Amino acid sequence: MRDDDFTRIHAAQTAVFAAAMPQSFQVSDYAPEMLTGHTAIQTPSILLEVVAVKPGEKRSGGRLALNVEFCAHCILSLKTANVQMEVRNVAARVLQVVDLNRWGLDNAEQPRQLSAFPGMFSEKLGFESWVVSWEQDFHLGDVDLGDDWLPAEVYLGEAPNIGAAHIDNYEKISP
Questions:
Q1: pLDDT band with cut points at 50, 70 and 90 for residue 1
Q2: Phi, psi at 58, each rounded to 5°
Q3: Is 120 helix (H, G, I), strand (E, B) or coil?
Q4: What is the predicted pLDDT for the residue at 30?
């Protein structure tokens, strides 16, 4: 495990959500079997899922840029009073937490494309859910700027006497 992989990203997100939500909330990984009845699901809960990973915009010092789409499944028991309204309130709170959140990570960009929509409902399993979705870019790996990223020579000019027409007015700066 590196210090900039998905394990670290998930741990950071889990910690932020756990701190932002009431103590009764379970914050953990999403597993499809939870919503089918094959695994017990504790409510209230926020289940975090990576839905897609695509190449991101290369502007990261040689690191691998990834665009990651996340979903947070907001789940409440059907026994919750006014469950349809309350599950939307949970989704709204999750949107507040996600908005502009870099999870305390230097390799994360700000989230974008935030949305929320109804999720699975199961009368048999006894839960109602909404899903919060967002995209976020992460830059993984070590910074590698190459050997030639620093200029070999630096010249100083003063405005307004700058540009190609004033090349003789520039002074070479010594390191």
A1: very low
A2: -75, 105
A3: strand
A4: 85
56 within some domain: yes
By residue range, what is the domain housing residue 115? 6-147
Residues in CB range of 35: below 8 A, 6 or more apart? 41, 73, 120, 122, 125, 129
CATH number of the domain encompassing residue 36: 3.30.70.1700
Q: Give the mean model confidence (pLDDT) for residues 14-30.
A: 92
pLDDT at 11 over 50: yes
Among 22, 41, 30, 26, CA closest to 127: 41
> What span, in angstroms and rounded, lies between the C-alpha atoms of 145 and 62?
6
Do the domain assignments include residue 162? no
- 120 confidence band (pLDDT: 50, 70, 90): confident
CA angle 70, 78, 132 (to 5 degrees): 15
Question: Is residue 21 in a domain?
Answer: yes
Please report whether residue 123 resides in a domain.
yes
